[in-house]
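Lecture 7 notes: from sequence to structure.
We start with the chain below.
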Amino acid sequence: MTAPLSIGGISLRQPVVLAPMSGVTDWPFRRVVREEGGELVVSEMVASAAILHGVRSEMRKLSGDARAEFPYSLQLAGWDEAMMAEAARIGEGMGAAMIDINLGCPARKVTGKLAGSALMQDEALVGRIFRAVRGAVSIPVTVKMRLGWDEHSHNAATIAAMAEAEGFAMVAVHGRTRCQFYKGEADWAAIAPVREAISLPLLVNGDINSLADIDRAIALSGADGVMIGRAAMGRPWFIRQAGQHLLGQPVDPEPSLSQRHAIMKRHLELMMDHYGAEAMRLARKHIAAYTSGMGGSALMRQIANNSADAASVFDTINRFFEDAIARNEDGDTKAGDTPVKVRAA
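Predicted structure tokens for the same chain:
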């Protein structure tokens, strides 16, 4: 059992945070997670240069009601300390409760620009970015990183100590190196040196798909809490369940089929409001996640994946759940099922 979490003066009732995931943790998804009992949510990775230039696709990641989302963390990616600092100021002005610096994204299009996890190869530059961003805002600043660039350069503990020295409020570590991408299994024990190096709140991340995983990840890493990403796709209530488990409270059961249907419809309706005509294309991964493991879901997803017409997609989903409920099918995805694969930031 763990305790509630305090991050730079912001108190959280549960030591569980929704991880940033590119193409996933947009405003509609963050909203649903909050409605299902999550507390601190992190935005998709946002390029700092794009914020300064007002690029619409990037700024859309921030849109929503900041007060309704409070506290939410804005994750920034970049390699220029001045741009990162100015983007952090803009984010604070738009209502972000925290700024998170991305040292974890392994995608080639990000690391090729010396951003994301590539920054872990240049500790001097990381130090300048830390100093500039921390000095630019009055809200807490945090960092999410990997173990290091490759198996020969596990320097997460060193960078975490730098973050603490600059006045950061929290550190999160994914238990893989950049060169592992998402292959193999997250090494939670390899995060333990970070715990020894800092007194800041520490979150363990990577492959946390069940309540049993949470217990093992905390025990092996020594972390104060968990950051959950892919396991929350199609299961936004899992963040709440994880928090209840860590606090030693009774854990809510999995939603019934009718409840799952209602949550899924709510999510898709929020996407319609947010994205308009693009919504159904962007929703395909979520449709797959919500129906994972349910009988007949492959055919339902095939129909949904080949239609951009919202009325047709909603009709397909409604009939699918009505049929499942009529068959009294147990279609709930239990904690521990394999989550949908997406890129985490």
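Points to note: Residues 257-275 form the longest helix (19 residues). The chain has two domains: 5-246, 257-326.
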